[in-house]
Amino acid sequence: MSTGQQASAASAAMDTTQRRSLATLGLAQFAIAMDFSIVYVAMPTIGADLGMEPAVLQWLVTAYALPFAGFLLFGGAVVDRLGARRVFVAGLGVFGAASILAGAAGAEWMVIAGRALQGVAAAFLSPAILALLSTGFPVEPARARAYSVWGAVGASGLAAGVVFGGVFTEVSWRLIFLVNIPIVLACIWGARRMTDTVRAGTAGARMPVASTALGTAAILLVVSALTLLGETADDGVVPVAVGAIALVALLAFLVNERRSATPLVARSLRRLANVRRGALAAALYMSSVGTEFFVITLFLQDQRDLSPLAAGIAFLPLAVLVTAGNLWAGRLLKSWSAPRVLLLGFGMSAVGLLMLATMLGVESFWAGMFPGLLVSGLGHGMVFTSVFVLGNTGVPAELSGAAGAVLTSAQYVSNAVGIAILTIIVTRIAGTPGFAWAFGFNAAVALAGAVLAVVLIRSEKRSRRAPR
What is the structure's pLDDT at 401? Predict the structure, then answer.
């Protein structure tokens, strides 16, 4: 072995502290991803046990997604100021307490409050995990290996969540929350020897408190207005009033972002075209195949009377194909541009969702839903990968973390709004036709994503033709 090869092998090897750190951070990331999806299969059971109305049931997902999106960028600023390890341990403590609150809930407000607190904790944990990976693995190729493990664990957490949700709910739905307690304790123990850091020049930096509060309030009010619209059959005054307040809050957020010395989204990020394009693509992704899990869960248990375990197992083909789509997109991106992969992914997603919309009347799962799940799942994985590649293309290294946070925030805000709209559809249109229209809505959003990809491809061609 040459000297260069020996140096490379040495840098790729991890010492005991690094291996322990990677295991701890991977386990924490697994919990964050799992908790987003684990509640899907359990929703009907929780709703029946706590007497939750169908329009309120969506908050089991939305209450996690909204605080996650609203506080993610703020969480990154807190990590820079206070130190990643300190925020990581504190976030784990809050996450554990929130899981106990949700698992012990005796009323709907308690489980929703627990989910919201989980989302807040995850918004601080996620940037802390990324910062600890960056400081704990500063040298390539060990760093690349660490990020690869982190990404794989996160994807497996999303897939495992729906299966675990079915298994735990067969015993008690409370286990889907209480399972986090041993994970939290293990991660706190594993964080003991991690190296903390505070980024230079941030100790006295101002925090974007006003922007965070206004932005989170605006999206919360928008989703609340849509939820009320789903609940109210005749009187539309209350939803309109809440919607008007939401519009005022949104305008106040935009004005504050424009004028504030500490905006939530840095002005340097706003000037990057690919970050804007990636955020739009991320929003369309999460409102199309990203909300597919929600509709499938309700359909399988409400219309097909599947048990939670059977519904969880039915998700396996979708989870497997999402992973396959991720891998395929990774290979295509070696020779294709991100917009081209995005077009293929959104196109396949739209086809699969349309297949689901038109085949729901077929009683056999294998002949009816299975083909649509395969096609939409493959497209789902392709879109997910290409969205983040697009959003980070041309982004300076020092802004890559913030750009990733913007893309993730766009996803989860769009997820909350999309689920609220889908809830209106399935509650206003009874039975299987309502679910067919819901999948049709998802397909229409995926087609909008394909149109965006076409526009981006044409923009690429014009850029290449333009004289330098």
Answer: 67
